[in-house]
Every structure is written in structure tokens, then in C-alpha cells.
Request: fold
Amino acid sequence: MIFLDNLINGLSLGSIYAIIALGYTMVYGIAKMLNFAHGDVIMVGAYVAFCGLQYWGLPPVVAILASMAICTVLGITIEGLAYRPLRQAASLAVLITAIGMSYLLQNVALMIWGANPKSFPPTFINSTTFRLGQLRVSSATVITILANIVIMVSLTLFTAKTKMGKAMRCVSEDRGAAELMGINVNRTISVTFAIGSALAAIAGVLLCSSYPILQPTTGSMPGIKAFTAAVFGGIGSIPGAMLGGVLLGVIEIFGKAYISTELGDAIVFAVLIVVLLVKPTGLLGKPVREKV
Amino acid sequence: MTKAKRNRLIYNIVTYALVIAAFLILQSMIANKTITRSLKGQLVPICCWIVMAVSLNLVIGISGELSLGHAGFMSIGAYTGAVVSGWLLNAFAVENTLLRLVLAIIAGGVMAGILGALIGIPVLRLRGDYLAIVTLAFGEIIRSLVNVLYIGVSDGRLRFSFLTKDMPEGTVMLVDGAKGAVKIKPISTFTVGFVLILITLFVVLNLINSRAGCAIKATRDNRIAAESMGIPVTKYKMIAFTTAAALAGMAGALYGLNSSTVVPTQFTFNQSINVLVFVVLGGLGNVLGSVISATLLTVLPEVLRAFSDYRMLAYAIVLILVMIFTNNPLIRSFVNRLFSPIKRLFRKNKQGGDIA
Reply:
């Protein structure tokens, strides 16, 4: 029973990591940059939803949609203002800019909402608990896992079938050639950021439904873990992000339950290192052949 | 003497001269008591951050590998330093603070160096972003492990325990789990910090200009070409990585012994990122740049303390703007055009000196 309990908790946490990791992996695959500010977009999304629920009295669905809309705009703005001028620059310069952006978001959030942790109000997401024999499953868990599956399927269909999805795959394959074929690279990258940020908003709400403490640094640790998950699964690959996220969540919960609570993070990262040493491009990553 | 050699010599002399001049000025300020209290408190941390920045620059700028776990080595150094110093005091009654400090710094460096070598063997097989994430992971693992580490000294013996605090009665705790290294006697001095900077500069600058340094730079510029010229790539990357780790450990020991407690949360991923920012703003591969940017960026938040709430905000905005202004091709060419009359003036003096 405890085993099943832990497994379900792990799947739920892993689903949150997976949704965040999707944002990382899509941006990495297409813009070839590590968007360190992604974790902080999650935090902004959660705060916006919090305001919608607590102060403006919006119904939960509207609050989540508003949070997604604001995060989408935020993502496009960040990309346009900070990352687009550096499209040709060295990847390290873009990385530092992303770090600067992360600090900026955290400090703006600190100014607007203060340093005191806010407790996220309960919504329909965590309203009930299902009982299956002795097993108790919170509705937040079920919704998180379902949301994860829905997002995963629709994103896969989106990249496989739609015109924009095809454009994304082209840009990720070869940006120069894509441009020559008449694909608007800047718009494609903007759309990628928009999708990633909207997903971040969802992730923020789900994260705070399961762990309802909200402060300006809420996003950073899940952000790092999700980034790890994206690398774990093979960065740039959508199923990889999903697999990596879920596995990471399960490993973390099992590590905490069976080995040591304090060492949960260490176990996660140790597994990551072992996987990368055996398979240096991650679980589902394609090996890139080197040409001389 | 070739021109390149002469330029290098001038660069090294300028670097040493600036550091020594800064030290002498600060020492005279301390003697005259014209130095502000807050700046005086910052002196040892500045030394530590300079050493951290220069050593990370060796990994990122010279060896071309992005490392995101440099603070992990610093924490190893800080803990080792605190334990060694406490052990010497409690078990051997070594009262001489300078001796304790020096031994602690050496121990911190050795410990971090050994760990750097152990980590480097598997890690340096990976490339690019994967290497970055693994160094990040190691930094986090180190932080988690020291969180559950207990070290105490009783009857002149060091006692270790892990996960649970399992110590006999009357043990003097040196490292107390999540509370960190406790009851440290602060013994770091600015002079020792200055000497450590000089040692770091000596090691790094000599390494860069040595035969090994050329091999490291060749590996950075084109790994395949370097490998086909018969350069053992992994060996040279290991040299750079281990040296940097050892230097970071020494900086950590100095940093740890500057305050009365060291807690694991001081050496998070964010701290590694801070050092990375020093290195990138100072210029990749530019040692003097690292020294200057580490100094300025350590002092800057203190100066901005008047704006207390806005200082980190200002820091973030400055960081983004500097990166955009120095890396955007349009803005760069604009700036170059602004300065080109001045540059032309200089070129005229040289009269056809070197046209690259």
C-alpha cells in the first residue's frame, strides 16, 4: 500500500516536472538556448493565478486561463526583448542573459508580492480525495497526471501535424536552411516561447495545488529539477522530457521514502549522472555524429 | 622576443601590479583608518571571490567547458578548512592562528582538488550542455551530503557520522548537519587572502602560458584537430579542472574561516551562477577581467545598499543590458563606429604597424 502511495505521489510530482521540462526542451530544441528564466515564469504563473483566486474572486478556470495568457505574453516579451538581440551571440552570453532575466523576475515578484510565503487557495483541483480500497488519492494528483497526458499528446500532434509544428521541427534541425525555405524563424521561436510559458503557467498552478506555498523562489528548485529531467530524457525531445520528468519524480519520492528524506535531491542527481555517463545524450536523445 | 610574447608579459605584469597596488592602497587605508567599516568587512570575501572567479575562468575561458558547480568545491574547502582548524585547536591546542589558517587552506585545496579529479574523470567525457548539467548536479549533491554530515572532535580524535548525530558525550561539534560548520574561530586575514590571490594568479597565468596551457587552449578551439595532433584531450582538461577545483577549495577555506558559521545554503547553485557572472562579465579567458569584475560586483551590492529593495533588481537589469550591449552585432558595430575616429588616431601614430 505504501509502495502504491509513493508511486502515485511520484507520478504526480513527475508529471509537474514533465510539464515544466517540456518548456525547457522545446526552447532548447528550437532556439538552442538554456532558458534559465523558465522556472521563474512558473512562479509568475502561480502568483497570477493566486491573485485571480484570492483578490479578484475569479472562478478557478478563468484564473488559470488568465495566468496562462499573462505568462504567454511574458514569455514572448522576454524572448523579444532579451534573447532576440542575442540570436547570433555565443551561447554563454545568452545563458547569462537568461540568468539575469531569472533574477529580474524573482525581484519583481519580490517587490509586487513581498517575501512572505503565500498559501495557495484550494480550488477544484485539490477539492476531493478518491478512495480505492485503502488507497487515498487526492484529486490534484489525478488532475496533474491527466493534464500531463493531455499536454503530451496534444504537443506531439501539434509538432507532427500542424504547419507551425513542422516549422518548429525545421528550425530545430537547421535554422539557416529553414530560413531559406521561407520559414519565419523569429516568429517560430516566439511561438515556442509562448507555448512553453503557457505550459509553465499550468505547471505553476498544479505545483501550488499539491505544494501550496508560494514565494518568489518557488520556481527555482522545480525549474532546476525539470531542466535536469529534460536532460535526463534527452534534451530537445518531447517524449524524452515526459519520460525524464516522470522518472525523476518517481525516483525522488522513492528516494525520500526508502533511503533518506534529506538525500532525496542527491539521489535524483546521482541517478542523472549515472544515466548521462552510460548514455551521454539522455534516455531518448539522438546521438549527434561529429563531422570533421 | 616575439610580439605575442611581449604582449603576454605586459599583460601579466599589469595584472600583478594592479593587484599589488590595490593591496598596498587598502593596507594604507586600514592603517590610516580611512576605510569604511562595511568595506573592511568585505575585504576577505573579495579575495575569495577573486580566487573563485579566476579559477572558474580557467575552466570556462581557457578550457572551454561550462561548469555550473564551482560553489560545490568552495563548500568542500570551507568545511574542510573549518574542520581542520577546529581539530588543530581542540586536539593539538595549536594556538597560532596563522599556522592554523595556512594548514586549513592547504587542506581545503587538497580535498577539493582530490574531489575535482574524482568528478572530472567521468564528467569530462561529456560535452557542452551535458557537462554543464552534470557539474550542476555534483554541486547539488555536495550540498545535500554536507547537510547530513556530522563531524566532532573528542579525546583528540575526529569522529564522523552520517545521517544521524551519533557522538559520544562531551564531543565538540565541528560540523553539525543542517546547522553547518559551527563555532568557527574567525582567523582569516586580508593579508593571507592577498597572498592567496597572488598564488592563484601565479598558478593560472603560468598554466595558461605553459605548454600544457597551449594544449588546453587548442582543445578548446578545436577538439578534433587537437586530438588528431596527438594531444591527450582528457588529460589536459583534467589538469585545468582539478587545478580550478583546488583553487576554489582554498578560497572556500579562507571564506569559511572568515565567519563563525558556514551553512550549506551558502553554496547553492545560485552562488555558482554568481561566480559565472563574474567570469563572463570580466571576459572569458581574461584573468585580469575576472579580478576586476569579481571586485566590482562584490562591492556593488554593498554600495547599492542605499537602494536596499531595488539593488538586486538593478543588478539583474545591468546584467541583461551589459550582455545585450556587448554581444549584439548591431549595437557593437554602432559603438565601434563611434570610437573609430579615436582608434584611427592611434593607428596613425604607429604608421602601418600591423595590418592583420
Summary: Residues 122 and 134 of chain B are 10 Å apart (CA to CA).
